[in-house]
């Protein structure tokens, strides 16, 4: 029992749970208040009335398919699949669904943050189990009578107990929040199929039983994931490689779950998936039979059976291998040529942070994540957009009186076509022809409106040209997705990723020295005070520049491929959304200033991270405190709590406040920049003083 208390009452485990629990409630309540949620499923009256014919529809489709030669063969998977589907959906014919307000139930079913929070909490338990090896007492523990197989069993019991208790608290809190928000979640004894998320469920159970079943499945998945990670860690000499393997598996699973289409030949990888099982709607709401040696096997039954077998196998293997003799960690004495006999503090610090602390792994992961997230957003190309792109292709370049006259003539031409079509609609007696004419009129009106917008913009730019500005026609779409309002979401994502990267890399700059108990020794050296801290800041600046440059360059490349960028020599006032309150600089120079501003804000955020690092006893505490102090306010701001606007590091890094108005120098922008500058400079001044003591 002592081992269970030691693991579950560990400060890091308790802190992680409190943090995840608080975030879960805050995000649940904030998303519930959003208007988008209420627009999803305001009523399911039509679904209830149509569900009574569900079995008849399935039967009709099955009978039609079985007439074909491809599906009529009783020995083929297709034939077996259709017959099994018909047999499984027969239970639907006897189910009576009831119509109640499903808003609260839908909210609980569709909320996915709790699943991700529980994965993080499970990992924190595993890290607590690893403490005895991290503190170098594995051999001592192994020498005790109960320090082998029995201890391994207690560790896994701790994992199971921690996951069960945390899951109950986290998922029950969702029910409580839904009840408080909506007043009632409905009768849980009603058929699960009464909720449209479980429309394709072919098991006769109540909604309450469905929730209980989903909760048990989630618990088993989380215990399995934790046991698998512990099996890797407990049988490898370090914890970096096991985490890389585990992280690769989780990332691959999430990629399959998120990006594989249901019509793909690889769709089984989407359904036989950890995240697919954690998704309540996906697990119970999607009917699918898997092809197992030519036989159609229900996915739910197959996943439950396989999960149970794998869980007991991994748990048993972890317990059996828990009695193994501690291995000796082998370390290489081979010197790296770059740092051999080097007296450079810069190279020594670079080696300590990049190689010794394995930060190069974070760099690799950052590049991979940056490449994935920089896919530009897709925009809907309506008729107006097509017209705009055609005009921009023809008008691209300098603004001239001839081009303005050309746009005038185009507006007159569109007006003439409108009059012609309206006259034609008045004389026509064919309803079909009239509908076609009205569709054309709608498109002509869109084209005329877009042409007038371009004309007004051209007139405005012509006046600016007369005032001496180097303006011209530029296709705004690409720049809007890169630095304008259309790219606001992407910019916020980039800022968040950069901030996470800086926390994971810079958090260990000083805490690593504290962890190795070398801080006092370093301070006693001549160059261990002022010069040492300057070197640390220089390396932090290099890390910051690399992170910002990689993301922005990748974003430019992807946006250019999708929408096109160009005319860098024209004035930034050529872009309609950057016309007021901005100095007369070229678009290229504006992009440089934009990146430089992002770099400065990120560096000031890194200064805060470094100060917290100097006060932390080890890297884990440093990262945890930095997440709470630096990253959490940004999370609060991103989910819509305006109170955190001015202390959000990610908000300042994204520079997105300049898009709130056409004027770059608005109040929000100035305040946010002043706050990040003052806080950053305050901590930069404080660390050197601390080193001079």
Q: How would you describe what is shown here?
A:
The protein is an all-alpha fold and 693 residues long. Helices cover 69% and strands 2% of the residues. The chain contains 32 helices and four strands. The protein is flat, with a radius of gyration of 31 Å.
Number of helices: 32
Number of extended strands? 4
Give the fraction of residues assigned to helices: 55-70%
Shape descriptor reads flat
Oligomeric organization of the protein chains: single chain
Q: How far do the termini sit from each other?
A: 45 Å
Mean pLDDT: 79
- Could you list the spans in which at least 5 consecutive residues all have pLDDT below 50? 34-42, 329-334, 659-664, 688-693
List the keywords.
693 residues; mainly alpha; two-stranded antiparallel ribbon; 4 strands
SSE layout and pairing:
Layout (H helix, E strand, L loop, with lengths): L1 H7 L2 H22 L2 H4 L6 H7 L2 H13 L2 H4 L4 H12 L14 H8 L2 H17 L1 H4 L3 H5 L6 H34 L24 H28 L5 H20 L8 H4 L2 H5 L1 H6 L3 E4 L2 E4 H23 L23 H12 L2 H15 L9 H13 L1 E2 L2 H27 L3 H36 L5 E2 L2 H7 L5 H19 L1 H8 L3 H5 L6 H33 L24 H29 L3 H20 L10 H6 L12 H26 L1
Antiparallel strand pairs: 1-2, 3-4
Helix pairs in contact: 1-12, 2-9, 2-12, 5-7, 8-12, 9-12, 9-13, 12-13, 12-18, 13-14, 13-18, 19-28, 20-25, 20-28, 21-23, 22-23, 24-28, 25-28, 25-29, 25-30, 26-29, 26-30, 28-29, 29-30, 29-32
